[in-house]
Amino acid sequence: MAAQLKTDRHAHEHTESSPVTIEAKTVTVDLKRAAQDLDYAKSAVEGYKGFAVYDSRFADIVKDAKLTRIQSREYQFAHEAGVYIKRTDKIYFTANFQTCDPIHIYSVEHSAPHTVSKVEHADVVQPNGACNYKDKILYCSQGSHTTPSALVLVDPTPSSPSSEILATNFQGRPFNSINDVVIHQSNDELWFTDPTYGYEQAFRPSPDLPSQIYRFSPSTGQMWMVADGFSQCNGLCFSPDYTHLYVTDTGACQAHDGGPKDGHNFSMNPRLPATIYEYDVVDNGTRLANRRVFAYCDTGVPDGIKCDTQGNVYSGCGDGVHVWDARGTLLGKIVTGAVCANFCFSRGKGGEEGIWMFCEEELYFCQLRDGVRGALVDIECL
């Protein structure tokens, strides 16, 4: 769910652009000045695309980095998910309901010319987040007034397309609108968030559950509710060693004026969470403990979230992707000047690797220096 919202949800007439290499600018933020000068703190990363360095370690991460705008359109076609499938050498992503109803699914070829195509997947209704599961795509199907929200596993291979619904409810109570999902690689269990954004956007019934996180074993069907107390739990990811879980709360972005109405009356409430929480993962990867604040997003809300192999934490925010170290220190930002609801790391068959950034009306690829890699790239891309 993005913080920047449009109102023309039928805007499918558009002009597609060709890839453009951005003349990326690198700016080092003066932290002492920012702490004392409100105007400087507000404007330090405005008006350009590139890299904002808050800590010298970030300069090493983005050394020789290249930022390319793959495509832009006149509606929010690049919003969520972001899943690389090696067999097709494509990244799959979803559009934003705010300007695309029903929500479309797209793929982009990892190799040049990076062709973007619309795709259809059976049983996937109003999709949002997704992940790579057994070299297939596990979608968070948010559902509709007549179709329950579900985890849907899709084989995108053109020669043998198929889909399988894995879960639709918690012990008889339908999910609200499943938002994002990750895999605990050691035990093959699925962890997912279930906020109320489907209701907030008026395509799901009034919620029958709080905004919560669940753990699910596909092999046995057993399901556990593992965390609550959120305004709107959203993105989630494990640390590289699976000892910590990071969860974003995007409660600052919600419907206003007393309810969902037509589903497009969204606004930002700065008094509500735009926060990343951290948990310890305990009892052999089955339970969460010791919830604490990890970081707060200063621009928009933190949405999709991932770790690199060094344990740094990346999250899509209101002006691009923000990066923190494992202790919650802001290292820097990849600035696109637009909301980045989600992103994904990948390494294509040609060897090029980096971050695909879904910035609503724009799709970017950021090629980082050799050695900077998402924590799951070796699992998903080899």
**What is the first-to-last residue Cα distance?**
30 Å
Secondary-structure content class: mainly beta
Low-confidence stretches: 2-11
Mean pLDDT: 92
Helical percent range?
under 10%
Q: Biggest β-sheet: count, sense, barrel?
A: 6 strands, mixed
User: How many β-strand runs?
Assistant: 31
> What order do the strands of the largest sheet run in, or round the barrel if closed?
2-3-28-27-26-25
Q: What is the C-alpha radius of gyration, as a whole number of Å?
A: 19 Å
- The oligomeric state is single chain
Enumerate how many helices there are, as a single number: 5
Strand content: 35-45%
Overall spatial form: globular
InterPro entries: 6-blade_b-propeller_TolB-like, Oryzine_lactonohydrolase, SGL
Protein name: SMP-30/Gluconolactonase/LRE-like region domain-containing protein
Domain SMP-30/Gluconolactonase/LRE-like region: 145-250, 268-346
Give the arrangement of secondary structure elements.
Layout: E1 20-21, E2 25-28, H1 31-36, H2 38-43, E3 50-53, H3 56-61, E4 66-72, E5 80-85, E6 90-94, E7 105-109, E8 116-119, E9 127-133, E10 136-141, E11 150-155, E12 162-167, E13 169-170, E14 173-174, E15 180-184, E16 189-194, H4 197-200, E17 212-216, E18 223-227, E19 233-238, E20 244-249, E21 253-255, E22 266-268, E23 275-282, E24 287-296, E25 305-307, E26 313-317, E27 320-324, E28 330-335, E29 342-347, E30 353-359, E31 362-367, H5 377-381
Parallel strand pairs: 2-3
Antiparallel strand pairs: 1-4, 3-28, 4-31, 5-6, 6-7, 7-8, 9-10, 10-11, 11-12, 13-14, 15-16, 16-17, 17-18, 19-20, 20-23, 21-22, 23-24, 25-26, 26-27, 27-28, 29-30, 30-31
